[in-house]
Design brief:
By secondary structure, the protein is mainly beta. The protein has five helices and 19 strands. The chain has two domains: 160 residues, Chitinase A, domain 3, CATH 3.10.50; 155 residues, Chitinase A, domain 3 (Roll).
Length: 327
Amino acid sequence: MRKTPALLSAVAVAALAVAALAGCSASPSAGCAPAYASGSASKLVKATASAANFPTPLVTKTSQVSQNKAGAGSPIHDGDQVDYTYAIYNGENGQALGTAQSVIRGGASNSAKANSIIRSLQCAKSGERYSLVSTVKDAFGKGAGGSDFADSATLVIVVDVRDHFLGKANGVNQLPLDGMPNVITAVNGQPGIVIQELDKPTTLRISTIKAGSGPAIKKNDTVHIKYSGWTWPTSLGGKPVIWPGGTGADGSQSKAGNATWTDDKATDAKVTKDMTPGLYKALIGAKVGSQILVVMPPKDGFGSDSTAYGFSAADTVIMVIDVLGIA
């Protein structure tokens, strides 16, 4: 098989940069408008989980999407988190060029600035497989094919949608609790906090900022969450400090406290008593769609794991957690 390092490198980059995602599918769902329609080229692709067959050369100047296997449930909308995989084929000769090596997760966005893989997710459903026929430039960006593929070269990209869930808490706003930080939320859902002249809490404090209406988290559930984390100011009236991230005792790397938002990539957590005590108590019973504020004094915090997040075990920790789904 001919090696195409530039294009395959672009595949890896896309798997990370797909935080600017977008969604689109082959067949319109009620109340959902796909980014791309089915076309004369995409209709020729017959795809399974392991192969794609189509007449060659297959050429297109515009992105087209046709469904190969129907999904189920609600359609993907702008802002949703999506788990998916894909395989790429050369439109000129049908040769397999590469696959996403693991499940990609990112936030759906039907922006015209997003690449065609991202945009093709719009209106797809969990379990769906579809074929996207697009150009190198539209799928991976200008020059992504290096010397092997022109920007205008046609690619066939077979996408399998594994799952999708909320991109931010969508629950009903609740009244704030006295003595707790105020939570301010950006348009994309990313939270910030204001502490004002508050005394540092000495006991675990948990507050529901947005009350979701989805299923409640139970022990041993694996939950999809986004979070931001800060340490309580060292002086009265000071500003909270976002976790910088760091290296744990075992060499593991932890990201900054707002990484799930800046990367637009939810993380998964198994809810057991082995996790941070304050986090466990905040998550148990919380409903999908909720946003939870938790202030953890040291005895309820991360203990020896604190250094992996860039703060001390003696720090009082603040977290705002969006509960997005249960796996």
